[in-house]
Design goal:
Length: about 375
């Protein structure tokens, strides 16, 4: 995620801190600054912050480690003021797996709150001494309260909360995946409206309005993604690739590619040897960089990128699209028996989906008549 700094690497996953989080810490420090805290108070304040975000991080690693059990890797984790975001490489395909991955996050907070509560009961003078008000609660009591709030908030049955995924997974075991997502998304939107009504008009808490926005858009995004996924089912890379494109030989000059860039919209140029095999790739940005240091008649061979990926034309499109999350180029060369036959671009995939949607709509209409 842009605007974040790496702070740690845990279990092979990079952990980033978003700069808005640093901004929040600064604001809190400034707000507290008026009362001139003692060194001890400041230290406790910082320690509380650290504990709080350890809980958030532990929640995310609940998801990450459970996903790993189902063979799904994680790209990174970013800590934001509103919580953590773990970017999994994809969501597990089976509803049952997604159910456990979604539930694993809040389960970690249940364990933390439980352990702290037992600790307080044993060492802190028992149940009657507990204060359940965030304004007056002590250090450990505050952590228990906040973990409880995290559990309740994350288990709300609405996207993009964990509860939304749990609900969808439960519905999807009984019905079609798209239908299950649409029901869960619709419920999310009803909940967003409730947040606005309750939060703004009754509790007069603007934070709930913000949450409502997140839920409303999260629900729509999730529904669109599920529909997209179902429409890609069974389509091969060959059906979605473009077949009209420029390809260069290693001897071609940078000037020739620059002409192609000006004349058309192709963003990446495959470089092919005599037997049709791809041996390199050159993107427009790399071309611009190369032209700062080389002449127009420099051959492509000297500046082309040699680390690239290719796709087999018979591959299914949906898993192939996961490549775009890790790959810096817009266009991926498609090969058949080792020979270049096409290029896959996201734009073209979007066009293919639109064509299929239009045809499907017409067919559905025809059936009604
Ligand atoms: Zn979560």
């Amino acid at each position: 995620m842009p605007w974040s700094v790496k702070i740690a690497r845990i279990a092979g996953v990079n952990v980033y801190l978003h700069f808005t989080f640093l901004l929040l810490m600064l604001l809190v420090a400034l707000a507290e600054g008026g009362t001139a805290p003692t060194f001890f108070e400041a230290a406790v304040g910082i320690l509380f912050f650290v504990c709080l975000f350890t809980c958030v991080l532990a929640h995310e690693f609940g998801h990450i480690l459970m996903a790993r059990r189902f063979g799904v890797g994680t790209r990174d984790v970013t800590l934001l003021p509103i919580g953590g975001v773990a970017r999994l490489e994809k969501m597990p395909d089976r509803p049952r797996d997604e159910f456990w991955v979604a539930l694993a996050g809040p389960a970690v907070n249940v364990v933390i709150a439980g352990v702290l509560l037992v600790g307080v009961l044993i060492f802190g003078g028992g149940w009657s001494g507990l204060v359940w008000d965030l304004e007056e609660a002590g250090f450990v009591e505050s952590l228990i309260l906040i973990n409880t709030a995290m559990i309740l908030f994350n288990l709300l049955p609405a996207f993009p909360m964990d509860g939304g995924r749990v609900l969808r997974a439960m519905l999807a075991s009984r019905m079609d995946f798209v239908r299950a997502t649409q029901i869960a998304a619709r419920l999310g939107r009803v909940m967003a409206v409730l947040f606005v009504v309750v939060g703004v008009f009754w509790l007069k808490n603007p934070f709930l309005f913000f949450i409502a926005l997140v839920v409303w858009f999260g629900a729509g995004q999730e529904a669109n993604y599920a529909i997209l996924k179902s429409q890609l089912k069974g389509i091969t890379v060959k059906q979605a690739m473009i077949t009209e494109f420029h390809q260069a030989t290693p001897e071609d000059s940078l000037g020739k590619i620059a002409e192609w860039v000006l004349a058309g919209t192709q963003t990446d140029y495959p470089i092919v040897n005599d037997s049709g095999q791809v041996i390199g790739i050159l993107g427009t940005n790399e071309l611009f960089e190369a032209l700062k240091r080389h002449d127009l008649w420099t051959s492509v061979r000297d500046v082309m990128k040699r680390d690239f990926v290719t796709l087999e034309s018979s591959f299914l499109l949906e898993p192939a699209l996961n490549l775009y999350q890790r790959y810096p180029h817009n266009m991926i060369p498609v090969v058949e028996n080792g020979v270049l036959t096409g290029m896959l671009t996201m734009d073209n995939v979007a066009e293919l989906i639109k064509i299929r949607q239009a045809l499907n709509r017409r067919l559905a209409y025809a059936k009604l008549r």
